[in-house]
TrEMBL record:
The active site is at residues 100, 165. This is Carnosine dipeptidase 1. It holds the Pfam family Peptidase_M20. Mn(2+) 1 binds at residues 131, 166, 443. Keywords: Carboxypeptidase, Hydrolase, Manganese, Metal-binding, Metalloprotease, Protease, Signal.
Amino acid sequence: FKLDELIKYVDSHEEEYVQALREWVAVESDSSDVTKREELHRMMDMVAEKLRKIKGTVELVDIGSQQLPDGSSLALPKVVVAQFGSDTNKATVCVYGHVDVQPAKKEDGWATEPYNLTDINGNLYGRGASDNKAPVLAWIHAVEAYKALNLDLPVNVKFIIEGMEETGSNGLDAMIESKKDSFFSDVDYIIISDCGWLSKRPALTYGTRGNCYFFAEVEGPKQDLHSGVYGGTVIEPMTDLIGILDTMISPSGTILIPGIREAVAPFSDEEWKMYQDIEFDVESYRTKMGVEQLMYSNKVELLAHRWRHPTVSIHGIEGAFSAPGSKTVIPAKVIGKFSIRQVPDMDPAVVEKQVSDHLHAVFAKRKSPNKLKVTMIIGAKPWLADLKHPLYHAGKAAVKKVFDMEPDLIREGGTIPIARTFQDVTGKSIIMLPIGGFDDGLHSQNEKMSRYNYIEGTKLFIAYLQEVSQIKAT
Ligand SMILES: C[C@H](N)C(=O)N[C@@H](Cc1c[nH]cn1)C(=O)O
Ligand SMILES: [Zn+2]
Ligand SMILES: [Zn+2]
């Protein structure tokens, strides 16, 4: 195995890799904005093209369309599936990633144009740079390096790259189900690199939280009203909405929706010990967040609430006045958007009922004439792996080879909606092998991927393919 040669190849192609990322980041592949759908289609074509260029067998799979709130339908971005090698004497890994991104506008507070990759001191700023375009490219470049040097891939490599992850991976569950006995029949392991390290130390991730995303709509008068002329005579939808949203979580972070906390898996002594052993500086985390005080100042508690406790976040209110200036309006209809990150042993179907029952009960107490409608639009399950699985031993060995250190063993507070489906439907084991930095600013202003993580991450993937090939078949 010629790791040194491969590493040299990666180092000498750094600028090409950065240019490839620049081209991908330039595509506004925002899956949540229906007006950007053409961009998303173009993005999927670019992924397919990139894989074809290195002689993969590539297919763009049509996964149908999505229903929009106004009743119309919109084509979903095709899913790119690809294959490199079909040697039955080798193991087969399937790399999953996504190339859709969260919304971003310069006026949100970005220091640079979000879709123009900008290098500042070795950090590559751009929407989707870390989540998840650079990691997907790093995987493709890892395969490309073997091929360019005429080295046999140690394992067969398949890819599944999608374009709807940020909105809950619409249409992907059905595709995986339909390909269970074809595309997945020879897959041994699934690898996902869609998260980040905890600190400057590389990490292996063994769990993700799920996410239940809700719309709570309160509808009142037939149109918006002048708050001076009509204020004080109508019961305002916004007051109702804020009143009910405020009953979900206490100021100190305790979830008040009956049944939610009771469902959470107990925190074992072994887990406590693992968290305690992780090197993590709460104070620098606090400073990085730019807050005066965190919910928890104790390391174990903080990590536990980041990874293995549920939380409620309120994201926005559609229909509310939010522009600069001071409009004196009573909005007629408002939609509160919030989500509950859930953990083992919570179940999205149960959470949906608990949330709906709770909000309707507190709304009923208000005796409001307005109408409340609660809808769960995403119900993504949490995922947890067995750290004793050989995939993780292989991960440790690869990190050792490339970084000469032991990785942190961590969980991810965010959600990879498809992870549980992969596990449940295909029955295959998954490893999450992140290369994102701890401070990449995913979903936030000034998202970035450092050159260091991008390039060393590519080397990690190269080494990991070799380590996986050493796993003895059971
Ligand atoms: C962790 C991953 N990179 C990510 O950002 N996932 C999203 C997926 C999601 C969940 N609900 C809606 N989208 C996330 O965790 O927010
Ligand atoms: Zn992601
Ligand atoms: Zn994301």
